[in-house]
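Incident review: delayed structure delivery

Summary: a single-chain prediction request sat in the queue longer than the usual turnaround. Root cause was a stuck worker, restarted by the on-call engineer. No data loss occurred. The affected request and its eventual output are reproduced below so the record is complete for anyone auditing the incident later.

Affected input:
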Amino acid sequence: MFQNYTPECFPKMGEQDPSDRLRGDLPKEMKENGTASFSQFSSSVRAMMRIRQKYQAIKKRRLEIAAATAAAQSLTSPRSTSPKVFTFENLQDPFNCNPSSPRKRKKKRKGRVLYPSNSLRAVPTKERSRAKNCLYLLCIIVFLQIYNAIENLDDHVLKYDLDGLEKTLKREVFGQQEIAESLLSHLHDYLSTYVHNKPLVLSLHGPTGVGKSHVGRLLAQHFRSVVGDDLVMQYFVLHHCPTDDDIPQCTKSLDSHVSEMVSHAEEEEKIPVFIFDEVEHMPRELLDTLQDLIHPKNSNEYLNAIYILISNLGHEDITKFVLHNSSVAVSGRLSLSQELNPWLRNYLQRYHVLFLDAELMPFMLLEKSHVMDCFIDEMSREGFYPDRSHVERLAEELSYYIVGEREFSHTGCRQVVAKVNLL
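Output delivered after worker restart:
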């Protein structure tokens, strides 16, 4: 409050006394009364002088304390070379009598819960939602339905005894392990449920004697024992439709027979199996009829069926592909059937649209070791003791493709039965 007072407002040493100067400026009435008024004015001036001197002493003392504090800090702390940055953190309030004490913050008043005067002062509790119990019940129901569906799928697959079929294929099919695994995988996925949006079509291709027809016979025997003879059809084109004159009658007979089997399977809630061998000899009309049966337009009962097509279409190119990539097959880096499927699919689609949605399974050439296994199995069936040296001698009588250290049979196991019958 005293900063606005300057030294010019007060008299210096040697100048005229302010009381004398002010006395000359007083009006006549005050000059006349002079003594009382002048004494009051001089007392106020002396009070102002004392206040100014006290303010100057306090200011000087503060400056001396600040200088001493700065000198002590410069001696105790290392000198900083970084430039000083002005902040408002250390700014002191000039009207604050104690600058070292921090400013007190006002405490926020906490909100108080006001209760009505005529009710109990109790903390309100949250009510349990009834929807949570319904949610728990819904989760339990969904879990039971899923578990029941899984159990039903397992029961449906167990009816077809695919484990027994797997053991049969491993025991009697040689050199086609990949085809057997792929066949079982497709059958397991399809037979896991009864309702489907399209039938399962499996197309087996390969050269002569590699086991295509043998696999077809094994599948027919297995499904006859599982679903019955009425729901399994094994169709040989050269036997059921030998001449071109029988084609119109063959198409009608095939259509009616398949329709009857599908209707019967729908009543028993089973899946029928249709095996067509020698498809390469099937005339165009029969292929068109089979295409209409596999891709029905109106009825849904035709969607639950398994069609197995066996042919040697593209066998020459399959043989060339296997011989050319035999070294790759030894290293095991690639699967020949996977490499062969794209080309084979393009070829079969040009042959007929029947193979458009079929799952292709190309059979590979059999090696000499596989042919020897065929000899051992056939000799055991006929009651001969399978001597190893005798089996090797019989296997040497067949012709082979020699590629490096590998030997692939020209005719597979087709001549094995004839050789064993001559013993």
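Verification: The radius of gyration is 55 Å.
Action items: add queue-age alerting; document worker restart procedure.
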